[in-house]
Amino acid sequence: MKRLTNERRIFVQADQSAPNRHRAKGRQRSGETAAASLVDVLNLVRLGQATTRQELERVSGYGRAIIADRLATLSDLRLIDESETGVATGGRAPRLVQFTKDRARLIVATLDQSAIGVGLADLSGKLLTEHHEATDITDQAMTVDRICALINWLMTRQSETPDLWGISISVPGPVITDPNSELLFETPDFLPNWDKSSLVETLMQRFHAPVLMHSSVETMTMGELQGGAGIGQQTMLFVKVGQRIAAGLVSNGQPYHGAAGAVGLIGQLPVTSGDTTGSLDAMAGADMIRQRGNAAAQSGESAYLADVLAREGEITAIEVCQAAQAGDVVSTEIVGQSGRLIGGIVATLANMLNPQLIVLAGSIAHTNDILLATIREAVYGASHPLVTRDLRILRSQMSSSSALLGAAGIAAEALFDPVFLKAWILLGSPTRHPSLLQGLETLDVVTQPADDGPPPPPSR
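Structure (tokenized):
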């Protein structure tokens, strides 16, 4: 087979592969050296750091024969393509070396307190299609089954069923994982009792692909960086306002992950309003807005909210925010309190981190201008002039797409991380990664094969 011939050629030439690089004590095995140079070349192409063979030679330090050999192998693996030509600069036009981003697909999914979403992305992390629906995620079994059904539905809608190389999930809570483990094999306890849901185990068994999981604030921060107001920003603070309030940080153009995934839990910080002290979540989150709105409606303090309560039977945080936007004085004060408390915490972060941009997201931030205005006022009023001189505070325009886009970007970077990539590149697919295959053999969860046939939607 041609591929085997290429691999044998790699092993023969491997010891000559990087003349300009320092060798470690002792000689690496040829297979390891070959995989390392394949990883180098592929990531240079994937990240756009080299687009021709000549650029690859110059940037990588590998010789012409090695570059030609590695590109032949990557072409056999369908990871690169050289069918297009670039612009001639005096001689023959060079062939462009391009990453085959459509070689396989990534599935992305989001779980929120009252909704789920799924999407399909290519290997560059570009989101191709998405679907969202309301649901009650407290019903764990139904939620897991629904996600599996939606994944099957998305995959079977493709003109040609693509290979699936990874599943990346965004969840509404911190994801604490073992930093020494390459892959996730058990469902973390991101919400109470969800470690017993077997979400990760079920997805791995049904789809035989690596599963990644990150908090929604981390995926939304990544999504904003890739496709929203954060494009090109080196330092950005992302604040999600909902039932819980959390923050994400971009530093030097990269999202900050922390030691174990517990990043940005600012909702746990203590704040005081009047004579009351409590956590930021309790004092400024969606539950506070909903509770105070209901109290104002029931007491008649707000005629606007009382009318909503009479029509709808309940008051939600969104309705309080809409009432504030419409000019209801009581609702304006409720939302204003939330903004002032959040703004005080964000000002402390801004003084510490000096971000170029602060982005507010979440349903509470999107339904009115008052929260944004009061947060801006608090931050500009409590921050050092050098911090606020060029600071912009904006509302995210990405809505629910940000978490899916961020999950796709995280998955793409994880699959092609040099250490992880080195273990599967000669095998042709991350689904053949030795750790994944070993993990699949040891899973205790027994699930029935997923049904390939259409419907969804509609949802339950």
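Residues 229-397 form a domain with the Nucleotidyltransferase; domain 5 fold (CATH 3.30.420.40). The first strand starts at residue 80 and ends at 81.
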